[in-house]
Write a structure and sequence with these properties.
Helix content is 32%, strand content 30%. The chain is α+β, with helices and mostly antiparallel strands. Bound molecules: adenosine-5'-triphosphate (ATP).
């Protein structure tokens, strides 16, 4: 356990130091369960979201995109069963009054002070707020606890606008809010999270085919972003643990440093949601009206980022020294290439480096100019943020327009002509 705790501490510290993830509201002592993504974290997150959007929405002919409002009419949450039903079992310690999720503690004693835990009661996880200037019960609304309902309530709109044939789906990326009893494990369990969700509408008789198709899509996504295959586990969720309307659910679990835990979910939601919202579909060819069934792949952005950071974190012994690097795929790495002049105080090197930097920046965006400290320190810093390539401009560059390109994983360097750089990098980030 000590080693695992150590790894999490190292990753949290690296994430803060290098600008991936900061504690939310840090200068005011923080706010439990909230984290702010810094410049590199945003880049990593955007890369993940763009890959998801391309794969799950844009590249397909049967998908529509959506960006629904976070605040919704409270009737949505009554119909969906969330009001009064979206809760976790809470237990409180009689001695230290700390609260825990009862399914996260073993036995009847407080994990922190060994005091006796009280009876479990249901704790409502939706964040309540008031809409408008009055604070009466009629003005109550909620921050959405999942993006899915935004999709269901727009089902009719999309059908009316585009007349899609079944099967088709609607995909959305967005924030969701859950008043978790015990937020923990860095960005694993947070109160403000981001989800990438698809609701895929099928005829009931086809559900197994499409469940399998989306299972494969999720597996493919984990491979594309570079999560190690052997760390992702598909777990069939058995009867009692499934939501009551779901006939089949698979949890995709990941080997996080603190154990094998849920990364993504794939659920067959039946016709539960559309029925509750009194929505249906008219099939013109068959001249038939019915309620489509739903397959839902639900992927958390924050847990993806944590899985990437923890699996990419690598320590390599170099004599007495340790080289730390993030083995991120170039397609997700926050910075693809860093450009440096060999020496900071030689204007001709700096000028040349700036011109190479400007060209690469225009082409790839995720490019950094780095002239801080000596070249060894720069490589270390870029290693720590997972930059796959470092380009260095030296005195030979001035004569023959070549540069050295150093690869993060092998630390090997190769000499290359400047006009080949763009092509070389474009090939690597495919
Ligand atoms: P858990 O059992 O861990 O609380 P869940 O089963 O409630 O999760 P779902 O409702 O299936 O989670 O949500 C879909 C996805 O959203 C999860 O697989 C996860 O990636 C993400 N997610 C859910 N809750 C959180 C949270 N509190 N913090 C970060 N990500 C979350």
């Amino acid at each position: 356990m000590a080693a695992e705790k150590d790894i999490m501490e190292k990753i949290i510290s690296l994430a803060k130091r290098r600008g991936f993830v900061y504690q939310g509201s840090e200068i005011y002592g923080g706010l439990a369960g909230t984290w702010d993504y810094g410049p590199l974290g945003v880049s990593l997150k955007n890369n993940v979201k763009n890959i998801w959007w391309k794969q799950f929405v844009e590249s397909r002919t049967d998908m529509f995109g959506l960006d629904a409002a976070i605040l919704m009419n409270p009737k949505v949450w009554e119909a969906s069963g969330h009001v009064g039903g979206f809760s976790d079992p809470l237990v409180e310690c009689a001695k230290c009054h700390k609260r825990f999720r009862s399914d996260h503690v073993e036995g009847n004693n407080c994990p922190e002070c060994s005091g006796v835990l009280g009876e479990a009661r249901q704790f409502d996880m939706m964040f309540k707020t008031n809409i408008g200037a009055t604070e009466d019960p009629d003005s109550i609304s909620y921050l959405r606890p999942e993006t899915a309902q935004g999709i269901f309530v727009n089902f009719k709109n999309v059908v009316d606008s585009f007349s899609p044939k079944l099967p088709f789906g609607i995909g959305q990326i967005g924030k969701a809010f859950r008043n978790e009893i015990a937020p923990r494990d860095f960005i694993f369990r947070v109160r403000e999270l981001e989800q990438m969700e698809v609701e895929y509408f099928v005829r009931e008789s086809d559900w197994e085919t499409y469940f399998e198709a989306w299972r494969r899509e999720i597996v493919h996504f984990t491979e594309v972003i570079g999560l190690p295959k052997n760390m992702v586990h598909e777990v069939e969720v058995e009867g009692d643990d499934r939501a009551h309307y779901s006939k089949r659910t698979i949890d995709f679990e990941f080997d996080f440093p603190f154990g094998q835990k849920e990364l993504y979910g794939l659920a067959y939601r039946g016709d539960y949601d559309l029925t509750n919202h009194k929505l249906n579909y008219f099939d013109q060819e068959a001249n038939e009206r019915f309620v489509p069934h739903v397959i839902e792949p639900s992927l958390g952005v924050d847990r993806t980022i944590l899985a990437l950071l923890t699996s990419a974190y690598t320590e390599e012994k170099l004599g007495d020294d340790v080289r730390v690097y993030l083995k991120l795929k170039p397609s997700v790495a926050p910075i693809i290439v860093a450009v440096s002049p060999l020496l900071k105080n030689k204007p001709e090197l700096v000028e040349k480096a700036q011109s190479v930097f400007a060209d690469l920046k225009r082409e790839f965006g995720r490019v950094m100019f780095d002239d801080n400290g000596n070249i060894g320190k720069r490589y270390r810093r870029q290693d720590e943020i997972g930059t796959p390539f470092c380009v260095t401009i030296d005195f030979d560059s001035l004569d023959d327009d070549t540069v050295t390109v150093r690869s993060r994983d092998t630390a090997e360097q190769e000499r290359m002509s400047i006009d080949k750089l763009g092509e070389y990098i474009a090939e690597k980030i495919k």
